[in-house]
Structures are given as C-alpha cells and as structure tokens.
TrEMBL record:
InterPro entries: CYP450_sterol_14alpha_dmase (IPR050529), Cyt_P450 (IPR001128), Cyt_P450_sf (IPR036396). Its main location: endoplasmic reticulum. GO terms for cellular component: endoplasmic reticulum membrane. Keywords: Heme, Iron, Lipid metabolism, Membrane, Metal-binding, Steroid metabolism, Transmembrane, Transmembrane helix. The chain crosses the membrane at residues 187-207. One of its GO terms (biological process) is bile acid biosynthetic process. Belongs to the cytochrome P450 family. It holds the Pfam family p450. GO terms for molecular function: heme binding; iron ion binding; oxysterol 7-alpha-hydroxylase activity. This is Uncharacterized protein. It is found in: Endoplasmic reticulum membrane.
Length: 262
C-alpha cells in the first residue's frame, strides 16, 4: 500500500502481456492502456446481463445435444470433456460463431492449441527467452493469427466488449497489425485460464459427493418454484444475473473450485 510504484499491478500486467502474448506497445503507450481498460465497462451492468443471456443460449445449444439428446455414447476423460465444453461455450459467447468451414473441427483445433499454449504459460512469464522454448513461439503466433481483425470479421454475433476492443485496437494500430491478434489472445486467455480448471474441480467434487448434488438440486428446485417456472426436458430454466448470484450452494461450490484451480 505504501509502495504503489514498486508493486504496481499495471506495470506487472504490461510486462506479463509482453512476455506471454507479445504485446509490446502497452509498455510505453498509456493512451492505449487507458482506452482498453475503458472497454471493461462492457463487462458490467446491462452489458454483462446481455453477455449472460448469450452464454445461457450457447450453453443450451452446445450442451443439450451432447448430454440430453445423445444416443451413441462415447467415453472421455473428465478434464478433456470439461475443457472442450467450456472452451467452445466461452469462445462462442465472447467472439461469436464461425461463419465458414467446419465449425466443430476449427473450434477443436483452436482449443487444442490454446491448451498447449496455456501449459507453457509459467515458462512464458519467466525470464526464459521465447526463442529457447521449443514450439512455443510458433504456437503463440498461430493463435495470434487466428484472432486478427480479418479473422474476427468472419465471426457472427461477437460480444459488445470484443466489438469495443476491436475498434480501440484498430484505432491505435494499423488494421493488418498482428499485435491486434496478440491483444485478443490475452483476452481469450484471461477468460479461460481460471474458468476451465474451476469447472473441472466443481464437477469432480460433485461426482464424489452425492450429498452436494442433492443440496444443489434442492436449491435449484426451490429457485424454479419461487420464480414460477416448471421443470421440463432440456435446459429450460431461465435466470437473471441477480438470481444466479443468490444461489448460495452453487456459489460456494465454485468458490471452493477456484481455490483449487491449479
């Protein structure tokens, strides 16, 4: 508290961005930094409510066919299953749907590259030059090229926060500048790095503790009854952000999972 210059998170985050995502301009450009931080207003209030609605819709479209309408079941390890679901739902909610090509195949490839990149993150933020880290630089560049302005223009239904960030970055860079993709990679990593392991530990805990599942079911049944909704087939429950925040058992489950994220 007494040494804000020595312990400035802003300075730390700029250095981390340069090492992990190859974002160089933030280190010396205060105007860019301020503009980008203003975009985070789109993660609050009504914009956040809209984002939650989009996420709920994506959850229904992606999860329902896999869990509730599947007849030809296959098996998978828990972490790959969770990471696959969370990545697709989060990516589509934030960046929108791919308009061209095999969407599932492209999302799977992007997810696999992202998870490999995330595994190398502790090395990237150390003082090891990226050139000495085998395959990491090429993997980072591949992800950055997937998130350029040109690639994002091929998406449909991107979130307000991404639209705002895209406009800000194109104002500070040339539209073809690859560092725009580096910014989007940093944002994507921030949205996934905690979410995937937190969801994994939450599901893992529920699988091992039937009493926790019962407590959640009771809480959700009470919520459904109090809001005048009826249980039916599929993911038919609707809730606002305030209602979601009021679910105590669910909230405590994810708080515990966050503590175990790594």
């Amino acid at each position: 508290m007494k040494n804000p210059k020595q312990f400035s998170f802003q300075d730390f985050s700029r250095q981390l961005s340069a090492k992990a995502f190859s974002i160089k301009k933030l280190v010396a450009d205060d105007d860019l930094n301020e503009d980008i931080h203003r975009a985070y207003l789109f993660l609050q209030g009504k914009a956040l409510d809209s984002l939650l609605e989009s996420l709920t819709q994506e959850l229904k479209e992606i999860v329902e066919p896999q869990l509730l309408k599947t007849t030809d079941w296959t098996t998978s390890r828990l972490f790959p299953f969770i990471s696959s679901l969370v990545f697709e739902i989060t990516f589509t909610t934030i960046y929108g749907k791919l308009l061209a090509g095999n969407r599932k195949e492209l999302i799977s490839e992007l997810r696999d590259d992202f998870l490999k990149f995330d595994d190398t993150f502790p090395y990237l933020v150390s003082d090891i030059p990226i050139q000495l880290l085998r395959h990491v630089k090429s993997m980072q560049e591949k992800l950055i090229r997937c998130l350029t302005s040109e690639k994002l223009d091929q998406m449909h239904g991107c979130s307000e926060v991404v639209q705002e960030r895209k406009e800000i970055l194109e104002k500070h860079y040339g539209r073809e500048d690859l560092e725009i993709g580096a910014h989007h990679l940093g944002f994507l990593w921030a949205s996934m790095a905690n979410t995937i392991p937190a969801m994994f530990w939450a599901v893992y805990y529920l699988l091992r503790h039937p009493e926790a599942v019962e407590a959640l079911r009771d809480e959700i049944d009470s919520f459904v009854q109090s809001t005048g909704q009826k249980k039916g087939p599929g993911l038919s429950i609707h809730f606002t952000r305030e209602q979601l925040d009021s679910l105590v058992c669910l909230g405590n489950l994810f708080l515990s999972a966050m503590k175990r994220r790594r």
